[in-house]
Specification:
The protein is of the alpha/beta class. The chain has nine helices and 18 strands. Among the domains are: 163 residues, Rossmann fold; 88 residues, Roll (SH3 type barrels). The strands form three sheets. Strands 5, 6, 12, 13, 14, 15, 16, 17 and 18 form a nine-stranded antiparallel beta sheet that branches. It has a five-stranded parallel beta sheet with strand order 3-2-1-4-7, with helices on both faces. A four-stranded mixed beta sheet has the order 9-8-11-10, with no helix packed on it.
Length: 398
């Protein structure tokens, strides 16, 4: 947007080859910004991918077509080295420890709003923009401006969860042009403007990698290793003990099983390939109800399962986040040790917001929910909201 000196604010848009970033670029140009398109290639390998040989190449072609249609400069940057080191290697490390990471959250923190931002600044950017369905609001508090991360207006597409690790510095450079729009309206604009991406399907799977056969993908570094699948019955003694827990720390403590607590019902090819709450891929059949994974142990290489969606091993009232893993998107709303406050919370993307209390303690943050939560998974990000503002986040420790 031009100022009194006829200088146009430059915004570098991360053109991904999808409809959302395409419409974001069109909106910014309509609003008078100096818009530049930048496509980033982050992944070369196709091991384990389920979509063609070179999905990134198709993305680049569509991104270039959009830039040409909008008559904006188009640039290309290869960030695959940074992506492997800061996202994929992190994934392998987390899975090797029996945890389930969220690479999309890391991709936004480490790549889109870090490595990509650096490249955008070299192109003279004042801001970077993406096609995320979320919003930013700036508030002045005691003479200082804080950049708030707000949920997207479209409840079916809100992506604020994926940006839960952004810092104030990163937020200060971020624009989200479609955050107050509904997806059908984004599609309509793309069609009206005859953008090549108007009917293109939304991307799925791991950020910049695509849909993958996870065990095959992980076998690049985590070798298959046969182990036992052990069924835990609903009347396991540990559930009765857990029901009597009263302290916050006790409620957040996960169930710990041994192979002697249940019965072997099958074998698997590596506990690190599985995650809590998973139903498919076990190869166990012939039971009255579906089997769900309730725990994994990468030390003994054991996968523990329970029968039925209401198995008590799937549910817990609380979780813990280590002190060094607690992140405040809005640092002025930080809770001090000993403080507690009610928030709306979620433990995975697209989960409906859950009511509960966040407690700040010396050994970390504890999220205690009003009702037990299904499938609390170590390595995933838990987030807390005040209204539509995402206030903070953290990695579930265990």
């Amino acid at each position: 947007m031009a100022n009194g000196n006829n200088y146009k604010t430059r915004v570098v848009v991360g053109l991904s080859g999808g409809v959302d970033s395409s419409v974001a670029a069109w909106l910014l140009k309509e609003q008078g910004y100096d818009v530049v398109g930048l496509f980033m290639r982050n992944w070369h390998d196709t091991v384990g991918t389920l979509e063609g040989d070179c999905p990134w190449y198709d993305d680049q072609v569509f991104a270039e077509l959009v830039a040409k249609k909008l008559d904006i400069p188009f640039h290309f940057v290869d960030l695959s080295e940074q992506y492997r080191a800061r996202v994929v290697d992190y994934m392998f490390d987390e899975y090797s420890r029996g945890r389930t990471p969220n690479p999309d959250v890391l991709c936004n923190r480490e790549i889109k709003f870090d490595a990509f931002l650096d490249e955008a600044l070299r192109l003279g950017a004042d801001y970077v923009a993406t096609g995320h369905y979320c919003r930013r609001r700036d508030d002045a508090v005691d003479g200082k401006v804080y950049h708030r991360l707000l949920a997207g207006t479209d409840p079916n597409k809100d992506q604020s969860y994926f940006l839960c690790q952004l810092s104030q510095q990163q937020m200060s450079k971020a624009l989200f042009p479609i955050g107050d729009m509904l997806k059908p309206d984004v599609r309509r604009i793309a069609a009206e403007q005859k953008l090549a991406t108007a009917r293109r399907k939304d991307s799925q799977g791991i950020c910049f990698v695509g849909k993958v056969d996870l065990p095959v993908f992980l076998q690049q570094k985590l070798a298959p290793k046969q182990g036992n699948i052990v069924e835990i019955l609903p009347d396991w003694h540990g559930y009765a003990d857990a029901a009597s827990r009263t302290s916050i720390a006790d409620m957040a403590r996960p169930y710990h099983y041994t192979p002697y607590d249940g019965k072997k019902i099958g074998v698997h090819n590596g506990a690190h390939y599985y995650t809590i709450g998973q139903r498919k891929g076990l190869g166990v059949s012939g039971r009255p109800e579906p089997m769900f994974i309730i725990a994994t142990d990468t030390v003994t290489n054991t996968v523990y399962v329970g029968q039925g969606q209401e198995h008590p091993g799937l549910y817990r009232r609380a979780l813990r986040i280590l002190p060094e893993e607690v992140h405040w998107v809005s640092p002025d709303r930080r809770l001090s040790e000993g403080e507690s406050r009610r928030f709306s919370m979620r433990i995975r993307y697209r989960q409906l917001l859950q009511a509960g209390v966040l407690h700040m303690c010396a050994d970390g943050a504890y999220m205690v929910f009003d009702v037990p939560q299904r499938g609390i998974t170590p390595g995933q990000f838990a987030v807390w909201y005040d209204g539509d503002e995402l206030v903070g986040s953290g990695v579930i420790s265990e």
